[in-house]
Amino acid sequence: MKDISSLVFKIKSFLHFSPKAEELSLVDGVIQKEDYFKYVILPGFCDVHVHFREPGFIYKESILTGCEAAAHGGYTCVCTMPNLKPVPDSLDSLKVQTDIIKKDATISVYPYGAITKGEFGKELSDMEDMADSVIAFSDDGKGVQSDELMREAMIKAKSLGKIIVAHCEDNSLLFGGYIHDGVYAKSHGHKGICSESEWKPIKRDIELARQTGCAYHVCHISCKESIELIRKAKADGVDITCETAPHYLTLDENCLLEDGRFKMNPPLRSKEDRLALIEGIKDGTIDMIATDHAPHSAEEKSKGLKGSAFGIVGLETAFPVLYTKLVRTGIITLEKLVELLAVNPRKRFNIKFDKSFSVWNLEEETVVDTSKFLSKGRATPFEGEKLYSKCYLTVYDGKAVFR
Fold first, then answer.
1. Is 292 a catalytic residue?
2. Other CB atoms within 10 A of residue 380 CB
3. Most buried residue, 62, 121, 207, 395, by most Cβ within 10 Å?
4. Taking 50 as the threshold, does the pLDDT of residue 11 lie above it?
5. Structure pTM?
6. Burial (0-12, 13-18, 19+ Cβ within 10 Å), 384
7. Distance, CA of 65 to CA of 238 (rounded, Å)
8. d(CA 133, CA 244)
9. Gyration radius (Cα) of the chain, Å
10. In this prediction, what percent of the chain has a pLDDT beyond 90?
11. Core vs surface per residue 146-155: b (16+ CB within 10 A) or e
């Protein structure tokens, strides 16, 4: 085992997981010993924003296929959003999901509980009953429109020691839009979604978090105004964190094609917004990167920008996209990327650091081929792109979950 134990760990500051020699023996049979120095071992990534669709929409994804896709991308921990059927808004409805997780999950899967019953935004869910069984509370897929109901939710979450995780979207400002209200929408005759529909609810929630003392996390931020609001709130001492997704950091409206694989919510915004997000990554305003992995059937994504369902898959491309477009270009370091993907999510959501890890060849060039995805979803704007880094092995709880 001398050769294995002498592997160069490039992420020296993140040795929380510190794989043992006997765990590293899992590399044998996958990687030739003479090639060990071409590879790097990274901590298992943690994604706090995924949609595994089960129960209710298993034709899009299941707990099992979602876990397989996650492991393929180097993830060993995910948090699943509650827009399911039944919505996990009580212990009974939550149990439908947790029973499947116990049976089928091959990595750590932490469910969210809904903020409101049925995610209808009318009354609070059974938050107190679910508190010990969920990672946090969210109505992701829908914004909580009522100021007073969000205040009540924050007060309740604060009393339970839980985080409110917000999909920030003001329905009164949508006007039937489905891509960013920018140059592309205007020149191609599409209805746009304005940035205010995102940043206005964030502004409201920051004030409510300030008043209640609730721990508050903002989902998938996409525009420069959101960054500015969150940066100021942090400076003012508000207990706030946020995430963005790989596509918002690496694509903008200039990349749009008339194809459903470019449709997600929030939408790809302007180049100015994308550059502001990168600055937010660099200065620490953005705490973590989550994929918002949202698989749909091929039919649901085949109807162009207007008619397709919102959402793309991301677990199997996240690290290669970010490594290729942010690390290899010198925008951030590899250590910073690991912090965003593995360390900060666990710290914020109080998820234990374990000995899970993945093995990557960072110099290997691959082409994104959706036919090789383990997710049931195939819609990605990165299809056909040449990217660097390939995952050869993912280990969770001492077992190889991707090889």
1. yes
2. 22
3. 395
4. no
5. 0.93
6. exposed
7. 38
8. 26
9. 20
10. 89
11. eeebbbbbbb
DSSP 85: S
Q: Are strands 179-180 and 399-402 parallel, antiparallel or unpaired?
A: unpaired
Residue type, 267: P
330, amino acid identity: G
Within 10 A of 1 (CB to CB), how many other CB atoms are there? 10
Angstrom CA distances, 275 to 24, 33, 231, 283, stand at 39, 42, 15, 12
- Main-chain dihedrals φ then ψ at residue 191, nearest 5 degrees: -80, 135
Residue 85: φ, ψ to 5°: -135, 105
The DSSP letter of residue 91 is H
* pLDDT tier, 355 (very low <50, low <70, confident <90, very high otherwise): confident
Catalytic residue among 239, 259, 292, 397: 292
Count CB-CB contacts under 10 A for residue 352: 8
Strand ordering across the sheet containing 75-80 = 45-50, 75-80, 108-111
Dump the DSSP string for 239-280: -EEEEE-HHHHH--GGG--SSGGG--SSPP--HHHHHHHHHH
- Between CA 198 and CA 222 the distance in angstroms is 8
Residue/partner pairs of 349-354 with CB below 8 Å, 24 or more apart: 349/46, 349/48, 349/79, 349/110, 349/135, 349/136, 349/163, 351/46, 351/77, 351/108, 351/110, 351/135, 353/16, 353/17, 353/43, 354/17, 354/44, 354/76, 354/108, 354/396, 354/397
Residue 113 carries which DSSP code? B
Closest CA to 42 of 320, 383, 375, 291: 320
Rounded Cα–Cα distance for residues 146 and 131 (Å): 22
Q: Packing angle between helix 196-212 and helix 224-235, nearest 10 degrees?
A: 10
| Backbone dihedral region for residue 141 (phi beyond 0: left; psi -120 to 50: alpha; all else: beta) | left
**The tokens 């030739």 sit on which residue?**
32
Query: What pLDDT, in 10s, does the model give residues 234-264?
Result: 999 999 999 999 999 999 999 999 999 999 9
Give 35's pLDDT tier (boundaries 50, 70, 90).
low
pLDDT digits (tens, 9 = 90+) for 78-107: 999 999 999 999 999 999 999 999 999 999
Helix (H) or strand (E) holding 364: strand 357-367
Q: pLDDT band for 12, please (50, 70, 90 cuts).
A: very low
